[in-house]
């Protein structure tokens, strides 16, 4: 089969290159550099989204925002304009469940089957081929194309009908980002109390406060390096979508609202392009304390521990 891929950015480019290893892949992206990288790996470049859809039996998109998904799928020169009836379309973006269902219904009228398949694991997981994929859509289409998803995934879960994958992804990101915010608050509380932060960190990692989110935040905060694996702007979008879903369903989301506001403050500090763990900067700016300076280097911490 011929596989089409639209959106070759920080996540999409890696996923596309895994697919290239075993399939004929046709690609499009607005970035010439992103296209060139995939072409050098063996893909074929075409001039538009519609050209990708026209050539592909199965189509993938990896896009930043819900509006991008709707435009690429339904806009002039998009998927609906080019795809043949019988085409199967997986959207890997983190989008809105409502948008996904609306797009899916419009594509179904043209004979195109859509599944939402948001991914988790960041660029490093995409590069390693170990992403988690949460899929919503027809089970028969999922089963038939599972090997394609497994080229870039470590775990693939069929969650339910179209839109269900996105619900799972938004819930996951709400939990993860709330955990990051709680870790910021806890470490700053420890710093204000004057406790040795490296020893506090060791205690947490051996206790019930430990988590992947905690460790990622602590490692970034202690180093002071917030180079993005994922950006604050995109994480803020995800929290916003989770709160929209909560509003739609009438579910109280006070914790999500607090995280949303914390990230909005971080964006106000100019941290939109930083890693989401840079929400620590909000606490550091407010309290005029630097976690990285207070924690010192690992070598310094080891020397202090040996001396005591």
Please, could you describe this protein's structure?
This protein is an alpha/beta fold. It has two domains: 2-160, Rossmann fold; 168-307, N-(1-d-carboxylethyl)-l-norvaline Dehydrogenase, domain 2, CATH 1.10.1040.10. Helices cover 57% and strands 13% of the residues. The chain is built from 16 helices and nine strands. It has helices spanning 12-20, 32-40, 49-55, 66-74, 79-82, 97-108, 122-128, 139-149, 164-193, 197-205, 212-223, 232-249, 254-268, 280-287, 291-295, 298-307; strands at residues 2-6, 24-28, 44-45, 58-61, 88-91, 113-116, 119-120, 131-136, 153-160. The chain has a six-stranded parallel β-sheet, sandwiched between helices. Strands 7-8-9 form a three-stranded mixed β-sheet. Strand 5 (88-91), helix 6 and strand 6 (113-116) form a beta-alpha-beta unit. The longest helix is centred in the middle third of the chain and has 30 residues, at 164-193. The protein is elongated, with a radius of gyration of 21 Å. The N and C termini lie far apart (65 Å). The model has no long low-confidence stretch (mean pLDDT 95).
